[in-house]
Automatic annotation (TrEMBL):
Pfam families: Asp_Glu_race
Record protein name field: Hydantoin racemase
Entry similarity comment: Belongs to the HyuE racemase family.
Catalytic activity from the UniProt record: D-5-benzylhydantoin = L-5-benzylhydantoin; a D-5-monosubstituted hydantoin = a L-5-monosubstituted hydantoin; D-5-isobutylhydantoin = L-5-isobutylhydantoin
Family matches, as PANTHER family: PROTEIN DCG1 (PTHR28047)
Length: 247
């Protein structure tokens, strides 16, 4: 089984961190193919960054098709471009947020998602509600710019731990979801410290993708995720003229 792990931002060190986490939980025989977008923002913090990141992510999906992959993982907790990718592909496509909150729902009645900035908190809170977990989850921001997670001297880990402690004390959280792909390397340590399940979206998405492939299931192409209709695209978007991606 070949899983394509796409980082929709352009920071290669974050891709590698996520790839390490993905390979640590992948089943024997599962190959993780890590890809970094070659166009777009260095990090994704809010709706604008996410919109600008989508074309680069879609280009990676297209350009990696020659090597083949059985499922794709969009490696951003904002589930950047997830709906578009599901229309674009004929294989399963999963996102970190949807995978993580579904996994947390198996483990706890109440859980808190701890993310980076307030602008991301609002976006993720909307996603959590859309995924049907709004009554069971609270989303918190820890005031950490995403790229500070790459800098061990930034104090980001202390801010993250402080917000987790507030979630446990104030929210009645029975589990914690880490709301950024850049936090993926911290899950095991934090689980050991706090004694509750700590769900990492990268790991959760790998296992969800493996399950779908193993079950022989893929995205429905009826209505919502039907392949894009052929039409002309203008200007810089000419490279994105819809074509059927995978046979």
């Amino acid at each position: 089984m070949r899983l394509l792990l796409i980082n929709p931002n352009t920071t290669a060190s974050m891709t590698e961190k996520a790839a390490v986490a993905a390979r640590a939980v992948a089943s024997p025989g599962t190959e993780i193919i890590a890809a970094t977008s070659q166009m777009g923002p260095a990090s994704i913090e809010g709706y604008y960054d996410g919109a600008i990141a989508v074309p680069g992510m879609l280009r990676e999906l297209k350009e990696r098709q020659a090597g083949g992959y059985d499922a794709a993982i969009i490696c951003c907790f904002d589930d950047t471009g997830l709906e578009a990718a599901r229309m674009f592909c004929d294989v399963p496509v999963v996102g970190l947020c949807e995978s993580a909150v579904a996994t947390a729902g198996f483990l706890a009645q109440r859980f808190s998602v701890v993310t980076t900035l307030e602008r991301s908190r609002i976006l993720i809170d909307n996603l959590v509600r859309r995924y049907g977990m709004g009554s069971r989850a609270k989303v918190r921001a820890s005031d950490i710019p995403v790229l500070e997670l790459e800098d061990s001297s930034s104090g980001a880990i202390g801010k993250l731990r402080a917000e987790i402690e507030r979630a446990l004390a104030e929210d009645g959280a029975e589990a914690i979801v880490l709301g950024c792909a850049g936090m993926t390397d911290l899950a095991r340590e934090l689980q050991s410290i706090y004694g509750v399940p700590v769900v990492d979206g990268v790991a959760a998405a790998v296992k969800q993708a493996e399950a779908l492939v193993s079950l022989g299931l893929s995205t429905s192409k009826r209505s919502s995720y039907a392949s894009p209709l052929p039409k002309s695209f203008s200007g810089a978007m000419q490279d994105f003229v819809p074509t059927r991606l995978l046979a």
